């Protein structure tokens, strides 16, 4: 498997991905749902590799575990609650609102352009001579991104019922209560040798582990499933995929930790020293190290459907 990284020192990130007002409103809706739907304290083997786990954190009565073997993080949430959350109308309405979509279009335009540039390059590498592809885009709620995908040079058809050359699953992995079942469903949408492309947060990343206990990182039920790269590769293999590539694009790990440094636990001595004393260039180098070594929490993954 290829492990790559690309360092994004892009101006568009200065604007910030998050609009504070929008983010707070979204968090309010999410946490309101979580408060009304507590999850019983339940432990299960790792949902990625089957190994034993330890408790990692508890947030709003949602209990998170961390795998002893592959270091993935997940909460044992029933499929029923996960589905209820997915169809929670106030949140769907908010995501469909003009205010939300306009803010996303303004703040994420650069990120989407960069994502599609990367995707186009990778499709050319992995799909050989086939230049026009049938694309299925699953659970993407950003209109601006949808428009970009439809206009992309590689896109022959978008979300038709037929089996796809490429299935895109962006930013929703974190919501999965049963990743094996979801991956099996995505597998069924692909032609043989088709590609699954995902953009996701991983539980082995610097900010996720450093900001343990921070609701902005582990937000029930928005974030209940954060595989490590190793855990993801294991479950992809089990579900009939070969993982071709895990790219780390993370630009935001250090920034998230800096923005939330008052929430760092007292005994996290090294990180306290890092965020309070290191100069800008050291922090940038540290971020670059996280990306190069695959220890950022932001990953882009490409997997190929194995031929039966
Ligand atoms: Zn595991």
* CATH architecture assignment name: 3-Layer(aba) Sandwich
- Work out the helix count: 11
What is the CATH fold-level name? Answer: Rossmann fold
Q: Reading side by side through the largest sheet, how are the strands ordered? A: 1-10-11-8-7-5-6
Bound compounds:
zinc ion
C-alpha Rg, in Å? 19 Å
Query: Any idea what the CATH superfamily is called?
Result: Vaccinia Virus protein VP39
Q: Largest sheet, if any?
A: 7 strands, mixed
Estimated helix fraction: 40-55%
Shape descriptor reads globular
The secondary-structure class comes to alpha/beta
Q: Which spans have pLDDT < 50 for at least 5 consecutive residues?
A: 5-15
From the N-terminal CA to the C-terminal CA, the straight-line distance is 20 Å
Structure at a glance:
The protein is α/β, with parallel strands linked by helices and 308 residues long. The chain contains eleven helices and eleven strands.
Task: Provide a descriptive summary of the structure in words.
The chain is an alpha/beta fold and 308 residues long. The chain has a single domain, classed as Rossmann fold, CATH 3.40.50. Helices cover 41% and strands 21% of the residues. The protein has 11 helices and 11 strands. It has a 7-stranded mixed beta sheet with strand order 1-10-11-8-7-5-6, with helices on both faces. The longest helix is centred in the middle third of the chain and has 29 residues. The two termini are 20 Å apart. 37% of the residues are buried.
């Amino acid at each position: 498997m290829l492990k790559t990284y690309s360092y994004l020192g892009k101006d568009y990130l200065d604007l910030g991905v998050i609009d504070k007002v929008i983010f707070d409103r979204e968090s309010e809706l999410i946490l309101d749902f979580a408060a009304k739907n507590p999850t019983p304290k339940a432990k299960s083997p790792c949902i990625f590799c089957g190994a034993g786990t330890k408790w990692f954190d508890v947030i709003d009565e949602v209990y998170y575990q961390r795998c002893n073997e592959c270091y993935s993080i997940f909460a044992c949430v029933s499929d029923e609650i996960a589905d209820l959350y997915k169809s929670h109308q106030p949140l769907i309405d908010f995501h469909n609102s003009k205010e939300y979509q306009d803010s996303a279009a303004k703040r994420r335009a650069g990120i989407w352009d960069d994502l599609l540039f990367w995707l186009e390059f990778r499709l050319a590498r992995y799909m050989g001579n086939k230049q026009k592809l049938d694309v299925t885009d699953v659970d993407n709620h950003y209109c601006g991104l949808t428009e970009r995908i439809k206009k992309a040079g590689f896109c022959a058809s978008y979300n038709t019922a037929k089996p796809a050359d490429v299935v895109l699953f962006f930013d929703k992995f974190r919501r999965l209560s049963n990743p094996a079942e979801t991956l099996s469903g995505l597998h069924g949408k692909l032609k043989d040798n088709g590609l699954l492309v995902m953009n996701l947060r991983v539980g082995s990343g610097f900010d996720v582990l450093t900001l343990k206990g921070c609701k902005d990182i582990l937000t029930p039920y928005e974030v209940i499933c954060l595989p490590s790269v190793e855990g993801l590769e294991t479950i992809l293999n089990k579900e009939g995929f070969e993982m071709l590539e895990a790219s780390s694009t993370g630009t935001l790990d250090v920034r998230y930790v800096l923005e939330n440094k008052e929430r760092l636990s007292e005994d996290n001595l090294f990180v306290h020293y890092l965020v309070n004393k290191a100069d800008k260039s050291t922090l940038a180098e540290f971020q670059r190290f996280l990306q190069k070594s695959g220890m950022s929490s932001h990953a882009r993954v490409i997997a190929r459907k194995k031929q039966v």
